[in-house]
Amino acid sequence: MISVQAVNFAYDGTKQLLKDISFSVQEGEIIGIVGPNGSGKTTLLKLLSRTLSPSSGEVMLQGKNIRTYSQKELAKKIAVLSQKTEESFSYSVYDTVSLGRYAHQQRFLPSWSKEDEETVRAAMQMTEVTHLQNRTLPFLSGGERQRVYLAQALAQEPSLLLLDEPTNHLDMKHSIQLFRFLQTWVEENESTVIAIFHDLNLASMYCNRIFVLEDGEMIVQDTPQHALTETVLQDVYHPIILCEPHPLHEAPIITYAPVIQEKKGPLSYKKEESRFVIEGTEAVKVMSSLHGIKWAREVVYSWDEGDYADREDILHFGLYAKPSRIVTRETKKGDIISVIMTGNKAHVSLFVHGVLADAEYFQYMMMISSLLDIQSVLIASAQYGTHADIQDFIHETMDEVRKQC
């Protein structure tokens, strides 16, 4: 359908806005372009619509350089819904949508056919603006106006639809309806949609592939499952982003963790007469082999008869015997790992001063279980700060424990 080959773009004498961009998009795909403000998303869309021309490289549309198409030929193939749609004249909704048929009119004998009328009516019905057809644009809400311009784009019957933040001004209901409709439209017409998104969850749910831009460069182009990962999104957007599996869909759900500027207090640990305690001033996300996933402020390993059932913020492990050895190590950053030996079995707890994805909780649990004879494993993280990589720390601690035992 459309391909971009080694495209660069810069306005004269200014910073390069796009750097060596290459990709191809096939018929039947919905492509999402995501990235921070200023990453080059809208500039890329303008190159695809020929509003701008690349400084170098080529944009190919159905096997031909996009520069070789006449304006009318291009309008039959590409429709654009820009981010800002401001009306210059007080057209009615019907007249505005009808303008989408311009490319299909005869050059010297403009006429309005039955096909034109049916196409306009169908586009208004699809976007739920038929009841507004006699209203003029200045008297519509932002969301209504957005749907009118989308109907105009659909009335062009393009092969490629370019959308710059199409859910701008739309509520949740109409945003979901829009992309459900676009999925059907793409499948039935073997068409293509390329859209800019700020809503990562909409992009995840409805796109076949995601293009991630940062500072004019293409960082990733892949399926939502592989493009919208915590590692990619945190590197690009910088706040703490968590990706969880959707309960009904293979695409991930993206959530944002609150940003905490500084840690209120360090984790501490202490050995008492009949228990070993690790505690902090804030709750941490804990995954353990015995208790599953929960948030807790304190973890207690005890070898007494104490009752901890009434404290929801405590995670308690009852040991069947007094520990023969307790090994505790701490990094400069504040990561803590403790190994409590009872006989030849180990209870291991790892507290991470940073961010862990769910997959990494499982990864570290499996790693620890493969290195020692384990009775229980606990992995905990406060889920703020930077992404943590502590594999070397784990291996070094397990080596030390094996030497001492």
TrEMBL record:
<feature type="domain" description="ABC transporter">
    <location>
        <begin position="2"/>
        <end position="240"/>
    </location>
</feature>
<dbReference type="Pfam" id="PF00005">
    <property type="entry name" value="ABC_tran"/>
</dbReference>
<keyword id="KW-0813">Transport</keyword>
<dbReference type="GO" id="GO:0016887">
    <property type="term" value="F:ATP hydrolysis activity"/>
</dbReference>
<dbReference type="GO" id="GO:0005524">
    <property type="term" value="F:ATP binding"/>
</dbReference>
<dbReference type="InterPro" id="IPR027417">
    <property type="entry name" value="P-loop_NTPase"/>
</dbReference>
<protein>
    <recommendedName>
        <fullName>ABC transporter domain-containing protein</fullName>
    </recommendedName>
</protein>
<dbReference type="InterPro" id="IPR003439">
    <property type="entry name" value="ABC_transporter-like_ATP-bd"/>
</dbReference>
<keyword id="KW-0067">ATP-binding</keyword>
<keyword id="KW-0547">Nucleotide-binding</keyword>
<dbReference type="InterPro" id="IPR003593">
    <property type="entry name" value="AAA+_ATPase"/>
</dbReference>
<keyword id="KW-1278">Translocase</keyword>
